[in-house]
Amino acid sequence: MTTTDIPMNSQPAQTMQRLEEDIRKCEAAEAELTRRNLELTELNARLSMAQQQLMQQEKLASIGQLAAGVAHEINNPIGYVFSNFETLGTYIGRMLAMFKLYQDAEDSIADPAVRAALRVERETADLEFLIEDIPVLMSESREGITRVRKIVQDLKDFSRVDANQEWQWANLHAGIDSTLNIVSNEVKYKADVVKEYGQIPDIECQPSHINQVIMNIVINGAHAISGERGKITIRTGCDPTHVWIEIADTGSGIPLEIQSRIFDPFFTTKPIGSGTGLGLSLSYGIIQKHGGQIEVRSAPGCGTTFRITLPIRRAAEQEA
Ligand SMILES: Nc1ncnc2c1ncn2[C@@H]1O[C@H](COP(=O)(O)OP(=O)(O)O)[C@@H](O)[C@H]1O
Ligand SMILES: [Mg+2]
């Protein structure tokens, strides 16, 4: 009698088969659960990241308002310090000229006691040195005040938060210049900034938002430059209906396979804590709202160029 002849054996075999099938199903279900769990964990992480980013945005917005407020407060005193300083410069110039005349006239004074007293006083004060040093001090101080005025103006331009005036005719070059001043600390140790401005008309835009875009792209450019000193070139130009801005860096470049993802929210190749992955996605949104376009050209090792095209006049659909 061979084993195949025993009918009793078929029942355990079937049971085994069913059991194995059940186990397979269980395993599949478990795998599915694990997958979903992973998905949920990832979603959760994204949500908490989104919340952090929103908080960060909120913080930045309030810092912007604070900066605008402080700039406004400083603007007034620095205005009169600057104007008084100019007048003071003129007065001191006249006084120094008078001193010179007095000094020359010293020998013609008949009374020897007066002459001697004047000489002692002149030598103690070191009038020669004062006459030489005062104009230098004045000129350095004027430069300092001018710089403070410029910073205040840049801060004001940059953080213009007046909602009613958001859409306005503005000169992009002025915006780019003030933005470059604001980010100069991030850029100056890594790259030289070269401006190749063309002739462009004012455009109808939200200047502070455009500044934000320029800032994001320039800072990304600086981040991409490591090792030897690089260059960030900003070019502008126009055609009859549009203005374009190109920002080119000599940094690492962007691999082709991630170029389509750099505008995605939260896409970043930077270590956790240093990249938000929001800069380009926000910029994309801003340019879209302007009815414009933002494109990237890049190759690893050959740097990156962002090109922004903006309509000169706001299109009807943007007016809502
Ligand atoms: N100029 C650039 N050179 C190289 N890579 C860039 C450049 N600009 C953007 N990227 C890439 O795009 C990603 C997304 O940029 P962004 O949205 O500004 O976020 P983040 O700067 O926080 O990473 C960066 O992490 C980087 O990988
Ligand atoms: Mg960025």
Would you write up a description of this structure?
This protein is α+β, with helices and mostly antiparallel strands and 320 residues long. The protein has two domains: 1-161, no CATH class; 163-319, Heat Shock Protein 90, CATH 3.30.565. Helices cover 60% and strands 13% of the residues. The protein is built from seven helices and seven strands. Strands 2-4-5-7-6 form a five-stranded mixed β-sheet, with helices on one face. A two-stranded antiparallel ribbon has the order 1-3. Strand 4 (230-238) and strand 5 (242-249) form a beta hairpin. Helix 1 packs antiparallel against helix 3 (127-158), helix 4 (172-187) packs parallel to helix 5 (207-224) and helix 5 (207-224) packs antiparallel against helix 7 (279-289). The radius of gyration is 35 Å and the shape is elongated. The chain starts with 9 loop residues before the first helix and ends in a 9-residue tail after the last strand. The mean pLDDT is 87. The site of magnesium ion (MG) has 4 residues, from helix 5.
